[in-house]
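Known limitations

Structure tokens in this collection are predictions and should be treated as such. Users comparing against experimental data should check residue numbering before alignment. To illustrate the layout, the record for SalK is reproduced below. The input appears on top and the generated tokens appear beneath it.
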Amino acid sequence: MTTTTLPPRAGRRCHNAVNPLHSTLWFSPDLGREMAALGVTDPSAAYFAGRSAAMGAVGPGTVTATFYNFNHELVARHLPAVWSVAAPDAVLAARLRAADSTLRRLLGEAVIGSAEMAEAAELALRAVEGCTRHARPLYAAHADLPVPGEPHLAFWHAATLLREHRGDGHLAALLSAGLDPLEALVSHTATGKGMRPGWILTTRGWRRADWEAAAGRLRERGLLDEGGALTGTGTALRAEVEEHTDRLDSAPYEHLGETGVARLTELGRGFLATAVGAGAFPQDLLSQG
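Generated tokens:
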């Protein structure tokens, strides 16, 4: 049994404050411009290349396995072909340039150069010291990348590592819960915290018929009701998935300690509020606001 010295869900709250600062990149026009300069103009190709480049010139099977909830047909449409246009090292450099310009635009130069940003970078990197590579392919690949020198990029790099560390563990929790890729998406959207179905179908490569079929499977298991809402059983399962993920992702936050986790959460929330106010994310992204 995992023991913890942190308040309940402290690690999850910290993740929820820090992870979106990483995720701003994937909604940024800066990434599109940087990737287009390499010859990669399709948004899906840019995302698959940008997120998987740390693993090298991988094929569609590796990306489908590690990204989990994308339709393999969509992945195979772009990989491995994208690597003949832009090599992984070039993609990683473009990604970092885009992260730099995105954070500067969303947060402003005063925040970028602040003592608070340097403190956040130090805290996040200290948390990363508690992460582990085994059975965590996306985290392990990114852990082999050098830490950027500028504090805001070091913070973004650490946020990436913490995101992928939790994400790799989350996939184990989904498998344990018996949720296939689209069932995971449908049930997450039903919690009111996931993306709207339109965003999922567009970006993940699924068809409406696929969505309805997954919802049907969840209803057969008693997890969704006829109106598409989670049943009591479904709500309990989704809660257990998150708690399982928390247990698998406890190490970095235990390593950072209660005071450090609280401070990193505070700093991350402040940066996030500024980024959201600057239009970091589409207003219609989430299922219920």
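For this record: The chain has one domain: 10-277. The first helix runs from residue 10 to 23. Please report discrepancies through the issue tracker.
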